[in-house]
Amino acid sequence: MTGITSTCVYCGSSDKVKESYRQAATELGRKLAERKIELVYGGGRVGLMGLVADGVIQNGGQVYGVIPRFLDNLEVAHEGVTELVLTENMHERKMLMAERADSFIVLPGGLGTLDETFEILTWKQLRLHDKPVVILNVDGYWDALVELIHNQINENFAKPANLDLFSVVNTVDEALEALEKSPTPTHEIASKWT
Ligand code: AMP
Q1: Could you tell me which of 9, 17, 117, 188 has the fewest CB atoms within 10 Å of its CB?
Q2: What domain range includes position 55?
């Protein structure tokens, strides 16, 4: 096991998604708690976000939520989290989440999830951090994303080495194994560069 003690989970805020995505979110929360890995996330109680947090809380784990004040009403902050931080804006929220976690797991999600995922990957591409990023490809949800990145490489908009910035797995157990096998991160995101 490496020194991973916390993971930031990026995932959808929609409640209308299919059961396999919901189950993966709950299972991930439970298994993070069992492994004593702190959950860092967007602080809401809706969609997969709420399910991951519930999974951790119901199994005695630690949850660090970060939500901007203006979203507090929309996403409805989760009242059961261990620590909830209110930020002034989205940038501050994403920075705090990225600083607090020493790894990232991406569950299925929408535009917000894509924004967060690409931000953390581009920061890694620029060597602003070296934290592991694991894409949890539940039911092939992220196949199209992986294909898009391959297309960027084929068309020379990205380097083949960009594929080393993240790993893609199919199950929650594989995601946690991928974190365990990752080298311990050596450098922190420096907010002065972002
Ligand atoms: P979504 O994947 O769109 O359901 O959003 C998942 C998370 O991303 C939620 O916590 C949203 O608050 C957040 N989010 C939504 N839109 C954006 C955005 N434009 N930039 C950054 N985060 C966002």
Answers
A1: 188
A2: 13-181
